[in-house]
Design goal:
about 45% helix; Rossmann fold; single chain; binds uridine-5'-diphosphate-xylopyranose; N-(1-d-carboxylethyl)-l-norvaline Dehydrogenase, domain 2; six-stranded parallel sheet; alpha/beta
């Protein structure tokens, strides 16, 4: 199929490359000329395992092209809208400028029978509003097809998603739209991926409620970690035991410094704002608590570090292992790790942070921090070491080897991933979050 993808950020760049990989003829569009040039050269503008290879092979096949000119979408039968919906400055609500702009830009280039497919995470009600606009100005249809990809697994999640959700118009048009989307996702459909066909509002809500649920699960276990801390209980063991109940499940029950990134934080805030607009603020008021519990973990970590330094962080060397909001990503948007590093620096500590992928992004935002590419250099002479992002390289550090480098053997495990026994055996004071 001939497919266009409007917006080549995280979502769009991966989607365009993967659609070409699946055999479609794809044109990716973005207003950022630098980004388009780098994608056209086969260079991923961000760190994502597997994306460079997918880009290179799709470009070589001739099925993937990039352009800054929206007119290049002409001739495509399906147009994916994958632009960002960031949090508005000083508000909870999502900024819809880019989605509205993309739809307006597309309208003059649409032909009868084309399908516009929204993938961005939007406030519920957006698809119905945009469908009206598309119908008023063209003979095209609109579908809403939310994306559930996780950074670090984006290529896999796009090629082989765990489910497909199609928000379609009512009646015969809905059936036509469903068939077109089945053609786009033919390989996933053929391999038995569950497909949920729904109205627009349900499709939009699936996305925000999935993220709200995941965020709630993480804040739930972090709340338990706070209780564990004052009772001597071990939140990791608690999570293991809870996880054996198939109704609960072990995933997303890792306590620590909490969630960040470009999705969970802003999506729960956007959901709160939208529910309030709809007069149902009380229905999701608990998400404010979820957000508050999450942000509190960052303060807790800073306090644990300060306590470990006997209340005197000034000019003490703090090695922060990790800056990205999670491993296998260079994304520092709303990253708990970066936030903690910045706050410790604010208290006068000599913070030296390290990360396998995110230093450049972190430095751009916070040049006042100290950085080192080499974890052993970051750790050298440290008064305290903080594990903030659970990159495999950090989890694999040898407590005996790094023990010889530091000034004081204190390690604070912000992700509860280190083996406390072997660190203690090597003479370290090990402090987890909600672990005795
Ligand atoms: C998330 C959703 O998982 C994905 O489906 C959606 O499409 C976009 O948002 P992502 O932002 O890539 O994906 O990150 P995710 O893997 O969900 O992790 C989010 C944050 O939660 C990270 O900061 C991670 O460290 C934290 N987390 C995750 C925990 O603190 N504990 C856990 O048990 C799991």
């Amino acid at each position: 199929m001939k497919i266009s993808v409007i917006g080549c950020g995280y979502l769009g760049a991966v989607h365009a490359a993967c659609m070409a990989q699946l055999g479609h003829d794809v044109i990716g569009i973005d207003v950022d000329a630098n980004r388009i040039e780098s994608l056209a050269r086969g260079e991923a503008p961000f760190f994502e395992p597997g994306l460079p290879e997918t880009l290179t092979s799709s470009l070589a096949s001739g099925r993937l092209r990039f352009s800054t000119d929206l007119a290049a979408v002409r001739g495509s039968a399906v147009h994916f809208v994958a632009v960002g919906t960031p949090q508005r400055k000083g508000e909870n609500a999502a900024d819809m400028t880019y989605v509205d702009g993309a739809i307006d830009g597309l309208l003059p280039h649409l032909s009868d029978g084309d399908l516009v497919v929204g993938k961005s995470t939007v406030p519920v009600g957006t698809a119905a509003r945009l469908a009206k606009r598309v119908a008023e100005h063209s003979g095209a249809q609109l579908a809403w097809n939310p994306e559930f990809l996780r950074e670090g697994f984006a290529v896999k999640d796009t090629i082989a998603p765990d489910r497909l959700v199609y928000g379609v118009p009512d009646g015969d048009a809905g059936e036509m739209v469903r068939q077109l989307l089945d053609e786009v996702y033919a390989s996933a459909v053929a391999s038995g991926t569950p497909v949920v066909v729904a109205d627009y509002a349900t499709a939009e809500l699936v996305k925000v409620s999935a993220n709200a649920f995941l965020a709630t699960k993480i804040s739930f276990i972090n709340a338990m970690a706070e209780i564990a801390e004052v009772t001597g209980a071990d939140v990791s063991k608690l999570a293991d035991a809870l996880g054996f109940d198939a109704r609960i499940g072990r995933r997303f029950l890792n306590a620590g410094i909490g969630f960040g990134g470009g999705c969970l934080p802003k999506d729960i805030r956007g959901f709160i704002a939208r529910a309030e607009e709809l007069g149902r603020g009380e229905s999701v008021a608990f998400l404010k608590e979820v957000d508050a519990i999450n942000l509190r973990q960052r303060d807790r970590m800073v306090q644990i570090v300060v306590d470990a330094l006997n209340g005197e962080p000034f000019q003490k060397k703090v090695a922060v292992l990790g800056l990205a909001f999670k491993p296998n990503s260079d994304d520092v948007r709303d990253s708990p790790a970066l936030d903690i590093a910045v706050n410790l620096r604010g208290l006068g500590a000599n913070v030296v942070a390290t990360d396998p992928a995110a230093i450049a992004n972190a430095r751009r935002l916070h040049p006042q921090l100290g950085f080192s590419d080499d974890p052993l250099e970051a750790i050298r002479d440290a008064d305290v070491v903080v594990l903030a992002t659970e990159w495999a390289d950090f989890v694999a550090l040898d407590p005996i080897e790094v023990g010889a480098l530091v000034r004081t053997r204190t390690i604070i495990d912000g992700r509860n991933v280190l083996d406390a026994v072997s660190w203690r055996a090597a003479g370290w004071t090990y402090i987890g979050m909600g672990r005795p």
